[in-house]
Amino acid sequence: MRPMPQLEIVELPVSELVEYPNNAKEHPLEQVDQIANSIQEFGNCDPIGVWHNEQGEPEIVEGHGRLMALRKLGIETAPVIFLDHLTDEQRRAYALVHNKLTMNSDFDFELLQNELDMVTSIDMEDFGFINVEMPDIDDLFVDAEGQEDGLEKPKIIKCPHCGETIEL
């Protein structure tokens, strides 16, 4: 295991932050609006990860969506952490890993609904929580098409979020 880097949060002008031109993560306007809503409601609680690029500028490793939201809100400074301990290859890999790991799980819908029920004075739709329902188990299965009579049909599961089907 690599030693834990000493990270210090530093406040930098938003105008000095440089976007990584090969950032593979998309940030649609709807998501930027949700990030901006979060910053307005809770404050900017998540530092942007930057490193000094070849020109010595603080280039974003992770946090492009937050930068867009800060600009949208007219906020002039941002908390950042420097990730200069990473090699160029590690920086590229970390940016991808950082974004991918948040996509590798979902919510426990029952616990999520319980938590949402406890939030009564904050409009959670501002953050993308719309019609949160635990999927009905019957809705997860769809009939296999094109199967001849007499053959066992494979089970096909439909993802309740993206609608993609998987044959079991």
Number of helices, where a helix is a run of at least 4 consecutive DSSP H or I residues: 4
Instruction: Supply the helix-strand structural class.
Output: alpha+beta
Shape: globular
CATH topology of the largest domain: Conserved hypothetical protein from pyrococcus furiosus pfu- 392566-001, ParB domain
Q: What is the CATH architecture assignment of the largest domain?
A: Alpha-Beta Complex
Measured by DSSP, the beta-strand proportion falls in 15-25%
Radius of gyration from CA coordinates: 21 Å
Strand order of the largest sheet: 1-4-2-3
- Quantity of strands, as a count: 7
Give the total of domains: 3
* Order of helical and strand elements: EHEEHEHHEEE
CATH class of the largest domain: Alpha Beta
Short description:
Helices cover 29% and strands 17% of the residues.
Highlighted features:
7 strands; Conserved hypothetical protein from pyrococcus furiosus pfu- 392566-001, ParB domain; 4 helices; 4-stranded mixed sheet
Q: What would you note in describing this structure?
A:
The protein is of the alpha+beta class and 168 residues long. The chain is 29% helix and 17% strand. The chain has three domains: 10-101, Conserved hypothetical protein from pyrococcus furiosus pfu- 392566-001, ParB domain (Alpha-Beta Complex), CATH 3.90.1530.10; 105-134, no CATH class; 135-168, no CATH class. It has a four-stranded mixed sheet. Strands 5-6-7 form a three-stranded antiparallel sheet, with no helix packed on it. A hairpin with a 5-residue loop joins strand 2 (48-52) and strand 3 (58-62). The mean pLDDT is 85.
